Amino acid sequence: MMRFLIIAGLLSLACRVVFGRWPWEYLRGRSTRSQAVFNARKLLSLPADANRNDINAAHKRLVAMVHPDRGGTNSQVHEATAARDLLLDELPDERPLK
């Protein structure tokens, strides 16, 4: 039993040295915010490096498909708008520094 604990400790330390994280840190999932951003990108079919124009164009396309006048629902439009707003909030600030 003692041998197992020593080996487990050495493997944990090696993982920390090589990868920069403890082994139990890999068991934690992604944060809620990063999951929401991932889902928003998936909903709008956007890559991670999408810019403001790409996000707005994807939102416009999706809303045109799920609009209530075209057989969609209000909740689908609200979901698309929330995804757009979340992704726009994630973009770096574009104002020039003074």
Could you characterize the architecture of this molecule?
It contains 4 helices and no strands. The N and C termini lie far apart (62 Å). It is mainly alpha-helical. The model has no long low-confidence stretch (mean pLDDT 89). It has helices at 2-19, 32-44, 52-66, 74-90.
CATH superfamily of the largest domain: DnaJ domain
CATH top level of the largest domain is: Mainly Alpha
Order of H and E elements: HHHH
| CATH topology type of the largest domain | Helix Hairpins
- Uncertain residue ranges: none
Shape field: elongated
Number of helices, counting only DSSP H or I runs of 4 residues or more: 4
Name the descriptors.
2 domains; mainly alpha; 4 helices; single chain; Helix Hairpins; elongated; 98 residues
How does the SSE layout of this entry go?
Elements: H1 2-19, H2 32-44, H3 52-66, H4 74-90
Quick overview:
The chain is 64% helix and 0% strand. It has 98 residues and is mainly α.
